[in-house]
Structures are given as structure tokens and as C-alpha cells.
Amino acid sequence: MVCAVEIYEKPKLNDPVLIEGLPGIGFVANIAALHLIRELKAKRFAEIISASFQDFAVTTEEGGARSPINELYYCKRDDGNRDLIIWYGNTQALTTFGQYELCGKVLDLAQELGCRFVISLGGFKKDEVKVTPDVYSAATDNETLSQALSLETKVMVGYIFGIAGLLIGLSKLRNLKGFALLVDTLGMYPDANAARSALEILSKYLNLKIDLTRLSNAAEETKKILESFGMIRNVAQEKKKKEEQLRWFI
Amino acid sequence: MVCAVEIYEKPKLNDPVLIEGLPGIGFVANIAALHLIRELKAKRFAEIISASFQDFAVTTEEGGARSPINELYYCKRDDGNRDLIIWYGNTQALTTFGQYELCGKVLDLAQELGCRFVISLGGFKKDEVKVTPDVYSAATDNETLSQALSLETKVMVGYIFGIAGLLIGLSKLRNLKGFALLVDTLGMYPDANAARSALEILSKYLNLKIDLTRLSNAAEETKKILESFGMIRNVAQEKKKKEEQLRWFI
Amino acid sequence: MVCAVEIYEKPKLNDPVLIEGLPGIGFVANIAALHLIRELKAKRFAEIISASFQDFAVTTEEGGARSPINELYYCKRDDGNRDLIIWYGNTQALTTFGQYELCGKVLDLAQELGCRFVISLGGFKKDEVKVTPDVYSAATDNETLSQALSLETKVMVGYIFGIAGLLIGLSKLRNLKGFALLVDTLGMYPDANAARSALEILSKYLNLKIDLTRLSNAAEETKKILESFGMIRNVAQEKKKKEEQLRWFI
Amino acid sequence: MVCAVEIYEKPKLNDPVLIEGLPGIGFVANIAALHLIRELKAKRFAEIISASFQDFAVTTEEGGARSPINELYYCKRDDGNRDLIIWYGNTQALTTFGQYELCGKVLDLAQELGCRFVISLGGFKKDEVKVTPDVYSAATDNETLSQALSLETKVMVGYIFGIAGLLIGLSKLRNLKGFALLVDTLGMYPDANAARSALEILSKYLNLKIDLTRLSNAAEETKKILESFGMIRNVAQEKKKKEEQLRWFI
Predict the structure, then answer these.
(1) pTM
(2) Neighbours of B143 (CB within 10 A)
(3) pLDDT at residue A100 is higher than 80
């Protein structure tokens, strides 16, 4: 077993957009994806486990044991708009190798379901953040970037770490289109406010009508789990470690 | 060669339960499994070596050379109770990748033999331990957890590191059921007392009649080997290192 | 996906020479290869991505997202001289394992196109460098070394790290011929002067007529990208880390 | 390419014994194997390169470039004694994974050629060493150990690191027989005296008539190469690092 995908259903989807929502800086993508899944009543159709995930189980307060896992959900829309594939999970892979493999597997499956457009979400760590945080974008091509910029985002300059960046880069190499949305965040806790900004822009772009009044629930849930496992401080440390791992690269 | 399984026999087993007994905190599982194998005269039917084990041989006082290895034993019971598969060994894998692979191989084989239930054993490191140590459990599902809690265990909250945790998590993903038993231990030496608690609960659950008078033999043997190789202090260090390796994860 | 090669075209080439130009000490090879590609209007015919590259995207000032990638270009020459295959990229692989795999894939493809001779370029880090830097060479065999030495290079003594060394070593094992050119450089910045020396020797050997007046453009471009990402200081650190990784080896 | 074996010839051998001679503590095995190859005029029949070797080339004083490599030689004997397969090289693999893979490949090929007996050589690092150093042995089984002990060796107690240990352990799992000879050495330089002891015992066991007067040549050559690359001090450091890598293990 290297990276195993278990597919429960192969839905027929209308020009679906893949939205990435794994844990990362500020847990922006993770909160947004959880909220989307709930509000849209998205249906889980695939589970992915990888030998590059951490080798442990985590227990809930009720004694259940959970594994590191990624999941894919779909949402069909009867209003003629593009359907959605939502990539959710409780971890990214531990190694560069595992990240490429994971991203490749998800893209393989998404493309099989007709996906030609991807959106990755993430946090952009800042020491100070405005009440309405700035959102930055990067894209596979100029035309797509123009679309992203027209959503009141700014041009992202710098590295996009982890799956959020890898997804855009690998999509470009597969001739898919897409953009990344990076929201300013202090990055030290699950940032509901940043997730709100991401969801507002996402809704505008995808013609989604998402009720954001319950967003705090998704953030609270994420926060509660994270706090109980003492993971909140670890993200910042991880980020630092990643930066140190950088090698020559143009 | 990545992870090679050599199967000597494919026994016909009655609804067998897989019991994990690899070295870990306090060597609780390792002592308990060794004692079970001896008392039940369990028969070895498979050997597993992995390229993710340490690359050396260890010599015995008699000059024999032993490799890092895992073994599977079975025990048939003529009293109508479920048969047992015991997973014993002198090491876990060195890498996360190797742990997943090892656990996957063992589950593949166990399932092929009809296994639908797994039990992992382990130590729960504490700075102080009562004379009768507390035992904690986590399970694949609520029903199984209820069974574990009815055996006078408490709900486990936190991480379950290594194979003990991975086995429960991966079993859940394979729609198997099972629980982990984690016994309080100082974790600095092979803890016969903790192994006793694990075996008492295991015996109650599986209707086993295990004579525990010779348990100290298994612990002494484990202790003797460990001491001669200076491994006892290493476990605590390993645990610390593992905790530092943690990354974002809900 | 481990190391994926996408081939756009399989050109018919006349006894082609493979020239390696990946980032390394002083970015000597990288600048030289970029200049060759532009001046010779070389055509890209293959892209390579590897799971052993870094897992991120980098954004340009214009918001485009770029992945770690390697590329192969070819240049047909109508003057009867040997054609060229130029190996360019913005990264080497992160792991030893990835380096071997990458080098093997490129050699497989080059050999399929008839290549029997390879040239790797690189910097040789020195604390002081003359205005006209010394150039050192190492070769797969004595005859080829004689050719390299006749180009006013000196004998290289010591390690040749990374792809520049691996390419010569693996080529020798495949019964290909070739040499490495290592140019003295301080190694702390993209060294146009060192690249010039490499190109002059290369031109002499391959009967190339390369206009070097625009070489500073290639160096400036390389420098600009590197500075914006703060990568310049990292190369020296990397080099040190590599040296520490050395193990017994004759 | 993971671990590639190039076979030049498949010799017909008479019950051949595999002798391991890779670099390690005191370079005992390496010197002994080089001397055997020369004195017996052993013929190279296979080369092995692995992606787990270091990613560089080393240059000789004459400008030749050499890769990390392992080689297999054979020696046919017309006196009715068992033939020999000699495993020589300038490196071991960098990772545990690579070590298992390398050892597995060599054993596969040796078994294909009829080998049922292996001998690994190595140094046993001591702070003080007698003029005639003690030699220790460990074996796959009691009968073989008795043979080894009858050669005036003592029982080895402790770890046997690297290929020397792995080979005996993996051979046992393959139902091959064999022993390891570990010679006391200070381990800080290529130890011709220790290699002499290893060769004397080997000669007695295999009925070899090896002229040891030229042994110093093999040691000098090994020493010269090692010194020019500054590798001598690294072995001791490596050994220390290896010990730190130890994990729980009985």
C-alpha cells in the first residue's frame, strides 16, 4: 500500500471544479471546505490513505479512533452551474514524495470525472492582518489570473507551500486551469474570518449561495479538535521547518 | 524486496481475532504476546521481513545471529471460542512508510484467514502508575468501544503511536472492528505488571484461561535480552522523538 | 507518479551531445544552458517532473504559478556538426534517490535519440577566483580526458556533487563517453563570468559560434529570479550540508 | 532505476561461497576482498549500482571519474575446493532500505549460481587492540558456529552493523548457512593487520593458499584512496551516528 484510493461512487458531474481544502496555515482551506460540505450537503465518494501519512491513530473524547485520511466529496447543482468536487482531509502527506503522489492521485480521479478547473485555498501568514483580510491569487495562466484578480484579489508573489501550491503547479502541467486563493492570516489558530473571505470570493466566482451564518460552527469544530490535540502551535513550527528545507530553486 | 512475507502454513481458523504484540512503550504488548504464544502453544505460520527494519544483525550470547523480524502465530481453540492470530516480533518498522506497509501486509493475510476483529496492545506512558494500573481503550466503532469499556477500561484520549494505533485506524478503514488496550506504565523497562493487566482484560474478553504464574518468565526473558543490548533507555527517547515529528493533523 | 517524462517530440538528431545545465554552485551550468537555449533557438521537446522535487509552487511577479521542473531542448545544426540536447531546469531532485532516478530517465531518453556523449557543467567553489577563472575537468575515460585537457582545463581532483558528477559516473557505466567542466567560482551568486568560461570551452569543443554579448542577460534573469526568492545564500548552505552527508566511500 | 544489476557472465560454479568485502569499520573486509581478487585473479562478472548510493562522482588523481559501485567477482578452483564469489565495492548503501535491497539482489544472484554458504567480514571497533587481534564470529546456526569457533574465533556478542550483519541475518531467513568474522580494530584507518587475521582464518576454512606478502599493497592502495578523499575520519563518525539511530529492538 502506497497511496490507496477507495472509490464508493463515480458520479456523473457537469464540468466539475475541484476545490482543495486540506489543513494548512490558519486552517483556512480546512474550515472553508468543511463548511461547504455541510451547507451543500456534499456527498463523500472516495477515501484516500497514504503510507506517507503519520503512523498513529487519534482518539476522540468518546474513545473512537481516527486515522489520518483524505476524502473527496461531490456536489451536484441543478441550477446549471458547474458541479463541485471538494477535497477534504485531516492531514497532508509527511514527505515531499507523498505530497506529489497524493496530489497526482486526486487529479487522476478528478480528471476522470471530467474536471478541468481547480481551486486551491490557503492562508498567507502575516504578522498583522486587517479586519477584512487581503486575498492573493496565483493562476495557471494569464486569462485565469485575470478572472481571479477581478474578484478583488491581489497578485501573489512568493512560495505557495504544500498541496495548495503543488495542485496549481501540477494542474498547469496537465493543461488544466485554475487558481490559488491565499488569505492573510496570523496563522496561529483556525481562522474563521479568513475562511469567510475565501468563501465569499469562491461564492462569487462559482455562483454559490452559501449561508455563512453557520461558518463559526465549522471553525469551532475545527478549533475544538485542534485544541484538544495541541496542534495549533505546531502549524507555525511546521511552516518554519518547511522554509528551512528550501533548496536551490528558481 | 520491500516487505516480504513468507507463509509456512495457511491454517483454517474459526473467526480469528488478530492480537498485536510488537515492542513499544513498556514492552507491554511484547511481553503479553510472548506469554500468550508460550501458554497457548501457538504455532508460527508466517515470517515477515521489511526493508524498513534496521540494517543489522544482533547476536545472542551463544553466537547465533538474529535479524529484525516479525512473526505470525495461530492458536486453534477446541472450546468453540474464536481462534487467535498473534502478531509478534522484535521490532517495528523504522519509517512511517514502513509501518503502513507492514500493517497492511499483516491485515491482508489476517483477512485472508477470515479475521474480522483486531486487538492492539500498548503502554500509556505516565510519570506515576498505580499498583493496579489503569487501562484505556479506543475502538473502531461505538459498539466495540462499549464492549471494551465494559471490561473496566477507561476512554483513551490522545494519540496512539506506532502500530498499536495504526492497526486500529487501518482496520476501521477496512471495515474490520477492534479496539486498542493501553496500560499505564512508567515505560522505562519491560513492565510485567502492565502486561498482566493487559492479559487479564484480554482473557476476560476472549474467554481465555491463561495461567499468569509464568508471566514473569516472559518479562524476564524480554528484560534480559533488552538489557544485554542496552535498549531499555532507548524506548523513552524514541517516544520523545516521535512526538516531535508530529505535524498538522486533526 | 514518481518521475514522469512528457515527450512532445522525438527529434531525429545527428550524433547528439547531451549538455547538462541544472542549478548548482554559482549557477554556472544554469546560466550557460539558458544562454545556449536562447542563442541557438533550441526547441523544447520534453518536460520532466519528479516526486523528489520540492512540493510547492513559486509565483512570478505577474501572478503566474510555476512548478519545479526539468526540461529537455534540442538544437539541430546544419553545418555538419553534432546536434545538441540541452538539459535545463529550475531544480535538482531533493534526495539521492531522486537524483539517480532523474539522471537515469534523462539518459534513457538521450540514448534513445542516439546520444553517445555527455557534458556536465558546474561550479567549483573557491574562496578566491582569478579574473579568468580556472576550469577543471574529469572524464569517463583517458582519451576523453585528453580532449578535455587540450581545451586548457586542469585535472579535477575531488568530489563532483549532484547531477554534474552523477551524470558522468552513470554515463561511464552505460559505456557512454563524456566529461565534466567545473569552473572556479565564489559560488554565492549567479556567476556570469564563470558561465562565460564554460561557454568558451564548450564552443571550442563543439565548434559552436555563440555570441556572448547577451550572456549578461541570461545571468541577470537568473539573478533576478533568485534574488526575489532569496535563494542565493541557500546554495552555499546546501553545499555544506551535502559535505556533511558524506559516508564511507572510496 | 532502483538497484540495477548488470551481469556480464553467469559462470558455472562448484558449490560457491559468497564472501562479502564492502567498506566498513577499519576497512577490514574491503582490504581483504581486494587482496583476494588480486591474488586469485578473480574475474568480475557483475556490477551493481543503486539509487541509494551517494549522488556524486569522485575523481582520481588522473582525472578519471568513478561512481559509487558494487561488483561481484568469481574464482574457480581446480583443486576440488568450493569456488568463490567475492562481493567488492567502494560503498554501502546510504539508507536502511537501500541496504536490504542491495543485499537481497546479491543473494538472489548468488543463489542462482548455486551459492549456499556466505561469509561476511568486518571490523569490531575497540579502543585497544592486541598485536594479534581477537576475531569474533556469529553464525546462522549452531553447527556453522562450531565450525567458526574451531577456527580460533570467539563468540560475537552485540550488534553487527551494516551489510556484514544484514547478510548473515538475511541468509539465515533464506535457509542459507554462513558466518561473520569480526576482527578487533581501532577502526580509524585501513587496518592491514586486521585484514591479515581475517584472511588467515578464511584461508584455513576454505583451504585457500593466499600469499599475504603483498597484502600491504592492497592496504596501501585502499589507504591512499581514502586519504586523498579525507574519508578516514568519517568512518568513526558514521559508526557513532549509526548507534544513535538505534530503535527499540530485541
Answers:
(1) 0.85
(2) 9
(3) yes
Of A97, A172, A245, the CB nearest to C65: A172
Q: How far apart are CA B164 and CA D186, in angstroms?
A: 42
For cell 528545507, name the residue.
Answer: A245
Contact at CB, D65 and C247, closer than 8 angstroms: no
Helix spans in B40-122 (H): 96-112
SS3 state at C1 = coil
Q: Which three three-digit cell numbers place residue A16?
A: 466539475
How confident is the model at residue C1, as a pLDDT? 59
Q: Which of these, D220, D199, D200, lies nearest to D32 by C-alpha position?
A: D199
A123 to chain B, closest Cα gap in Å: 14
Q: Answer for the pair A95, A53: CB distance below 8 angstroms, yes or no.
A: no
Model confidence at A1, in pLDDT bands (50, 70, 90)? Answer: low
Measured in angstroms, the CA of A151 and the nearest CA of chain B are apart by 30
Q: Find the closest chain D residue to B58 by CA distance.
A: D159
pLDDT tens column, B56-102: 888 877 778 888 899 999 999 989 999 999 999 988 998 899 999 99
Residues of C in contact with D6 (CB under 8 A): 173
Which residues in chain B come in under a pLDDT of 70?
1, 225-250
- A113, A13 contact by CB (below 8 A): yes
Show which residues on chain A lie within 8 Å of chain C, measured between beta carbons: 96-97, 99-101, 104, 137-142, 145, 148-149, 155-163, 165-166, 168-170, 172-173, 180, 245-250
Nearest CA in chain D to B6: D173
Cβ neighbours of C107 in D, within 8 Å: none
- What DSSP line would sit under A181-226, residue for residue? EEEEE--SS--HHHHHHHHHHHHHHHT-----TTHHHHHHHHHHHH
Rounded to two decimals, the ipTM of the complex is 0.80
CB atoms within 10 A of CB D38: 14
Residue C56 to residue A159, Cβ atoms within 8 A: yes
- Return d(Cα B99, Cα A53) in angstroms, integer: 10
C79 pLDDT more than 80: yes
pLDDT digits (tens, 9 = 90+) for B170-192: 999 999 999 999 999 998 788 99
Q: Report the residue of chain A nearest C226, measured CA to CA.
A: A250
